[in-house]
Amino acid sequence: MAKAKKKRTRKKPTGMATRSGAHSSLAHQARIIDVTVQARDELEQRVAERTRQLLNTNKELERAMVDRQQLERELLEISEREKRRIGEDLHDMVCQELAATALFLKSTAKEIAADNAAAAATLEESAKTVNRNVGLARELARGLQAVELTASGLKNALRNLAAQACDSSGIKCHFKAARGVRVPDDTSALHLYRIAQEAVTNAVKHSEAKNILVTLDRNPTHTCVSVLDDGKGFAVRRRAKGLGLHMMRYRANALGGELKIERRRTGGMDITCIIPSRG
Fold first, then answer.
1. Neighbouring C-beta atoms of residue 102, cutoff 10 Å
2. What CA–CA distances, in Å, run from 76 to 73, 228, 254, 256?
3. Would you kindly state where each structural domain of the chain is located, as residue ranges?
4. Torsion angles phi and psi, residue 261, rounded to 5
5. What's the first-to-final CA gap in the chain, in angstroms?
6. Cα angle vertex 225, ends 183, 231, to 5°?
7. Which tens digit of pLDDT belongs to each residue from 255-275?
8. CB 275, CB 192: distance < 8 Å
9. DSSP for 189-252?
């Protein structure tokens, strides 16, 4: 007689096994949480350290920028003193010597006129050439002369600049200023004037403009000086290496500002220096 097959029955898990499994799962979760917390703490520490490094670097850059601006101001002050010296030498020495030479040529021409008219005429023409050079030298000396400016006197100085350009070139040069424009200090006023002076000089010499406008304007945070003309304009990239434009940018940077050079849609150029209203 065949033996009856015994039925296989699964044993039900005891309460101890269930608790063991739950404990193992909780321990695994706890390890995951510990690792996550540790990783987060390490990340926060690295972020905090990197932030401190960036803040220190930023402070160093700010100090370097302040030092550079101070150095640029000092260099520009030296440049102003040197320009003053050269202007005085031109006026007191070169112009005087040229004027004396022209006078000598004229007097000699009169002395020999009766005996040698051709030579006298040559001397007279030479005297005229020397006198023209005297005029050029005086113009150079005038451009290099010291400009005693105060912050409150910038408006009048720019108005006089426009008037002088109009008288010397025949180009219509106007000045327009907003009300209540305040310049941070005397040094800022001097550099703004020099920037405008260089821009006006360039426009008179090279732009073939019929009209030039010098403006002094402001907004709540910035002060700006602009020189606009209706001439032929120029390619900014080609002129970017010019000494005049370089000095204008240098002055603007020394004041913590910027120089914008743009071609106008209607023709000509717009050169604007923008500086913070407060130093």
1. 19
2. 5, 25, 8, 14
3. 24-146, 149-279
4. -125, 115
5. 115
6. 165
7. 889 999 999 988 899 999 999
8. yes
9. HHHHHHHHHHHHHHHHHHS--SEEEEEEEE-SSEEEEEEEE-S----HHHHTT-HHHHHHHHHH
Most trustworthy range by pLDDT among 5-9, 17-21, 22-26, 51-55? 51-55
Amino acid at 169: S
pLDDT at 1: 47
Homologous superfamily of domain range 149-279: Histidine kinase-like ATPase, C-terminal domain (3.30.565.10)
Distance of alpha carbon 275 from alpha carbon 224, whole angstroms: 6
Q: Are 274 and 224 in contact (CB under 8 A)?
A: yes
Q: Are 176 and 161 in contact (CB under 8 A)?
A: no
The structure's pTM equals 0.61
Q: For residue 93, what are its two tokens?
A: 């020495």
* Cα–Cα distance for residue pair 78/71, rounded to 1 Å: 11
The DSSP element (H or E) to which 263 belongs, if any, is strand 258-263
Closest by CA to 249, choosing from 199, 200, 203, 210, is 199
Q: Which long-range contacts (CB under 8 A, 24 or more apart) does 229-233 make?
A: 229/203, 229/268, 229/269, 230/264, 230/266, 230/267, 230/268, 231/203, 231/206, 231/207, 231/267, 231/268, 231/269, 232/207, 232/208, 232/267, 232/268, 233/207, 233/263, 233/264, 233/267, 233/268, 233/269
Q: H helices within 90-116, ranges in order?
A: 95-112
